[in-house]
Structures
1.
Amino acid sequence: MEFLPLTEPVLLILLSLAQQPRHGYSILKDVEHMSDGRVMLSTGTLYGALRRLLDEEWIEPFKEQESSRGRQAYRLTARGRRNLQFEVGRMKHLTRLANLRIAAKEA
Amino acid sequence: MSAGSMFGLILYRHALRLYPAFHRERFGEEMIAVFRELQAESATKGLFPRSWWCIREIAGVLAGALQEHWHAAGGDSVWLWFPTRRLTMHNEFRFPKTTAILMTIILAGVVMTIQRGEAIQQSLPYTNPPVAPIHPAHSTLLPGIVFGLVFFYAAGLVGWAILFAMRRSGVA
């Protein structure tokens, strides 16, 4: 798993696609929404990340029934979902550990 | 579409030319479509958010183009020389086979030249006969340097012209 640990933009892109297949604009808006406007990706950053994720087969193009020109949707592959779950598990472990340490210090 | 939006779109299309050809072919249409949607959305906002969005888009395209050129040049494989996570080869490794062959040939050539030089050195007598001072009839150094510079400049120009033609035609 070459990308791990994931950067925040990549993690948010994967989380956006975990819910449903999305095209570029929809991903950008969802990432913005999930981060409360803190992470606002440019098209250059988004398509750089999508290219890498496609090359690593974490995501794949998804054929929509009604797709206009220039609107390609993407979805998470089984590999991508597995890696995302692994990363979320790692973050959960870190959060639990951090909470324990902070609580121990406060007590 | 307003004149400003049209200008922005034209500028964006031109900026996309900074990307490698394969990236433009793969994502160019999509990126333009997304840019147009974002542009339509930003048109309803004030001057400051619109300017900030514009700066972010241009910076993103420039950074993305640099990154893709780095990737196309096999830049990602550089990390294999300084592995930080694992020592396995991955599918981003794109070291050209022809380069490896060329480097082997050059190395063999260098080794052979050194061996040949040593053989010549050993075959020569240790003491050289005394030679009177040589006075050149005319200087050959300056014309040689000028000729060399002109030659390499012309070669560079031809190389650049070929690369430019290839890029324009979408080959490279």
Note: The first strand of chain A starts at residue 22 and ends at 23.
2.
Amino acid sequence: MLIYNREYTRTPTMVSVTDLRTMYEQMVTARHYEERLVDEYLVGKQPAFDISAGPIPGELHLAAGHEASGAGVCIHLRDDDTVTAPHRPHHIAIAKGVDLERMTAEIFGRKTGLSRGKGGHMHLFDPDVNFACSGIIAQGCPPAVGAAMAAKKRNTDAVAVAFLGEGAIDQGGFLESLNLAAVRDFPVVFVVEDNDWAISMPKDRVTDVQNGAQRADGFDMPGVRVDSDDAMAVYEAADEAVMRARDGNGPTLIEVQVHRRMGHFMGDAEGYRPEADIDRAKQRDSIERLAEDLRSHGVTDDDIEEIRERAHERVEAAISWAKEQPEPEPAEAYENVFTNPPAQAATDGGAAADVPGDDGETGGDN
Amino acid sequence: MATESRDYTEATETDRELTMSRAMVEAIAWEMRENEEVFYMGEDVADYGGIFSSTTGLLDEFGRDRVMDVPISETAYLGAAVGAAQAGMRPIAELMFVDFFGVAMDQIYNNMAKNTYMSGGSVSVPMVLTTAVGGTYNDAAQHSQTLYGTFAHLPGMKVVVPSTAYDAKGLMHSAIRDDDPVVYMFHKRLMGLGWMPSPSGPKTGVPEEDYAIPFGEADVKRPGDDVTVVTLGLHVHRAMEAAEQLDDDGIDAEVIDLRTLVPLDTETVLDSVRKTGKLLVVDEDYQSFGVTGEIVARAAEGALDDLSAVKRLAIPDVPIPYARSLEDEVNPGTDDIAAAVRELHE
Amino acid sequence: MTDAVDVNSADSWPDDADDVAEGYLANWFVREGSAVDEGETLCEIQVEKVSIDVAAPTTGTVAERLVGEGDDFARGDVLARVQPSA
């Protein structure tokens, strides 16, 4: 169900079977990807959980249960549209068309990963499809506004989408982004993924509104809450928002109810979360729901199975490829600080930004 | 992997040992019992007990009013802590990762740190800003920093960096009792978390009763005659391991744990440098314009005639990379410290 | 003199970990010979991702520590023995 904050005259959206199939495939890919990453992540970390052990060390925030949001929004986007995502990005990256092999290699910290092993899973950058994600809450919003600003200055009809969690709507950077986008009519869509939990803090303890789309009211911006993680409902809400932006009519705020099927990060025992809440999350499966929608649009079970198999194969291929990739050489740690490194390049243990003294030369030739 | 812990200080002859996180919490709980106006606020500090176990058990004893979960609104809640402190309360506000200071720095360095001065001393800000620092567990550029230099550099806030359970409790008592703002920076890998094994040093004997360690007193964790190693936080333990290796080769390293950056105990460093003439500073913050440069500068100012060799080891001026091989390269290890001491000793 | 009391790991097992047979000893807080009060935390174990404090069953002295810090153990293994004070 879509809850709008104002009255509109809307032309109902017709979703094509092709789009339904595409969304389904992306969602299945995303779900299988996260489930496989659980296995890979836990290698070396059992029985004693040591966060820095194994092929995928560090934190890992998986998006099982969020798939409808990524798929339902990104299906309306082109490669030249910009997407920024938070620390739980994989389903969005997949739906946006990020290079899955290089993304996986990055998560495994390999030299041929998207960021040469320097970024890891929270800092995936794919300029070919204008995707980036970041680890600081709500801080993907201002850059998305900036991409929208650039599109407007250049008179293209490209748009930007910033994804964030429901906890992030309490962060200053988000609120400032809403205002800046609204006052300038920038072509940006804000998509809040509401999974009810900011790590261990339930929404009602920290946010004063139940419906996050109401944040739009304070900024004279259209807001819509998709009350269920139903891919077709997300599709409809996003279709309108993206169209509004492309037509030059400014930003929209969408909130989508999703469900966190796993912990906040891998290793989170979720002791703070009532069993009933976890069970409820597992029962509502947006992927099953979309399969039902596919069937009611005439797609056969064999077709559906074929899509699933293709998705699974793709995930397996990406993981296999990633695991064969070489690790970065230690000396690479000093590279890529600057696009134009100063003449005196960084050396072992040295300061990467050393510049020659008296001759005052800076930013030498590469 | 944790093994038998070692006692560094003579005051730790007790029957029980605590991890650094439990020692910190013990001090906080004691102060909260003593004074109703002490309270803790932060993200996930209530039911979760703090992401790095900074408040485990406090919710059960003190309730949600005094152990407050706050929205993800650092500017608002850190600024609110400043306001409550100026009203006379004694808040402890937690910045979940020090790397998040960016979204709230105005409240920290322009209000918390400066209001006392800007008011000519007529207001004080008796709050503690606790925050988790440090890397070595592959959390990449935005979640692995220590930023010791950033906070020590800006005037108006005291900066505390415990490296053991004994120090953590004593420094926390002092921090809460201090009428000035104190930034209490605890290293994630020293907390004794089951999911992030700590080296063997941080778990020490901890007296049951309250005790305060004064600020501005460095601790000579290991006396030695050949080379002075000045360090803090995690690298105290790496330096201690290096010192053991060097001992086998007949090199006697003196390891000084700074414990507080503001105020800084220059005298202890100078005494050591006058004795050994050789100074190595080890820091987990970026090399340029930071802690290592400051210590070397003070040694040069105070003991230039005695100084014959100087070296510094720190994170180079690069964002902290994710991949294990890269992070290991940029964060000084035990072997790096031992090698640097050997170079100085030659 | 009464017998030393076993501190059995099974007594501290988390409720929803019935199917888990292994634990890990994350931290010891007392040594052999340490005096302890009943209820005082002796050690911290980890079962799956849950952290549990194991309490002294009686006031007395830690007679023996049977599982080392950093070691795995099976559910039902005795972690330590405490000699009750007279």
Note: Chain C has no helices and eight strands.
